[in-house]
Design goal:
The chain is α/β, with parallel strands linked by helices. Helix content is about 40%, strand content about 15%. The chain binds magnesium ion.
Length: about 400
């Protein structure tokens, strides 16, 4: 491990607001936009981070000037700090922005900064991030395939899910998650079906039949159930399907509903939208979910995701991060899982199956899946490089949308 200069300083933070030129506002994909932050130091070392939130909002959270002592600006607090003070910076940003933040977009923006600080720390010390998160507990991380079909009829939706599950298995994935969303706020592309929960059960049964018994199958219904009783009545028919977890059956504020779901045998997973360990404390202790799903950027970065993992560990629970972004977040999740014993999977959207040009092109060397696993990267930090041509293209697309917005 290298030594770092005692007087090293953060000198600036770049915020790149990016948009996929072919973005579709009606598509269910938050991978179409991005904010990438690059933190610079006076010794020329840089760190890269991103977060899954509207990038214009995140940029405003970072660049807004301080206006009073409990409403300090994130960038202003960051500049001049020693880049190895990762935990201390997190606390100072959290407290200094408290009157504007504590939850929501301000924590999301802090997540992008925190990921960049972990990248920076690894590069300064000459170590991959997982070595500085406690050291590797495995040689490779197991990705699960995650894909949502973009089709417009129930029949095409069902067939697409079945074909995709078989494709995932053929590609070497050992696990896959199907987004079976026929009701609720994500109800797919306006597909209207009668008896949506009976149809959901039919699709889940068909998926298990298609992939066979020796394949890990997760189901995400994306907040589809209107209430816990409808959910419990539906799940009573799922006991033979061997579902690894059911993701976000209820709206995240319905902690009492989640707690009742703990009485049935299928493990419940949730947490993709939550920020800070404090929201996870409520989800785990009041909502009694069995799989915590922090999005590493959104929850507040690798620092806060590790704290959520500690909460899960202390309760004998599993952590499986949410991930629907570019190679930056994939790398962050690989390092997180590499150093977290109770993280058996990471979510993984294969680039060639993604509709998002950002997912395909932004990072030049996204950790690849080979033979069903992602080997641990060995380069310092996150171990990724941005594709600067792609960065320019996505920046231009975002600027084109910004034109005409009064400021
Ligand atoms: Mg989900």
């Amino acid at each position: 491990m290298r030594e770092a200069a005692a007087d090293m300083k953060i000198t600036s933070i770049e915020c790149h607001v990016l948009l996929d030129p072919d973005y579709d506002v009606s598509a269910t994909s938050s991978a179409q936009d991005d904010i990438v932050v690059v933190i610079h130091t006076d010794e020329g070392v840089t760190g890269i981070g991103e977060v899954d939130v509207n990038p214009w909002i995140a940029r405003a959270c970072i660049t807004a000037p301080s206006t009073h002592s409990m409403g300090l600006g994130l960038a202003e607090m960051l500049i001049g700090r020693h880049p190895l003070e990762v935990d201390e910076i997190w606390t100072d940003l959290y407290v200094g922005s408290a009157m504007n933040g504590r939850r929501g977009a301000m924590i999301n923006a802090m997540g992008a900064i925190d990921i960049a600080l972990h990248d920076l720390r690894g590069k300064i010390l000459g170590e991959p991030c997982y070595e500085l998160l406690g050291g590797p507990v495995r040689e490779a991380v197991i990705p699960y395939a995650s894909l949502q079909p973009e089709v417009t009829s129930y029949e095409a939706y069902r067939e697409s899910l079945l074909a995709w599950a078989l494709d995932a298995r053929a590609r070497g994935f050992r696990a896959a998650k199907a987004e079976v969303t026929l009701a609720g706020p994500y109800a797919h592309m306006g597909i209207k079906v009668d008896r949506p929960f009976e149809r959901t059960t039919e699709i889940v049964a068909a998926l298990r039949d298609a992939v066979g018994p020796d394949f890990t199958l997760m189901i995400d219904v994306q907040y589809a159930f209107p209430d816990v009783d409808t959910c419990l009545a539906t799940l009573a028919d799922w006991h033979d399907f061997d579902i690894y977890f059911l993701e976000t059956p209820l709206w995240p504020d319905d902690l009492a509903g989640y707690a009742r779901l703990a009485e049935q045998p299928i493990p419940i997973a949730s947490g993709e939208w939550l920020t800070t360990r404090f929201e996870f404390l409520q989800l785990l202790d009041q909502g009694r979910v069995r799989v915590a799903q922090p999005d590493i950027g959104r929850v507040g970065g690798l620092t806060e995701a590790r704290r959520v993992a500690d909460l899960a560990r202390d309760r004998g629970l599993t952590v499986v991060p949410h991930l629907w972004k570019t190679g930056i977040s994939i790398a962050a999740a690989v390092h997180f899982a590499a150093a977290t014993p109770h993280c058996p999977f990471i979510e993984y959207l294969p680039a060639d199956l993604s509709e998002s040009a950002l997912r395909k092109d932004l990072v030049a060397n996204t950790p690849p899946m080979v033979d069903g696993v992602v080997r641990l990267p060995t380069a310092p930090g996150l171990g990724i490089e941005l594709n600067h041509d792609a960065l320019r293209r996505f920046t231009d697309a975002a600027r084109a949308v910004s034109v005409g917005v009064a400021s």
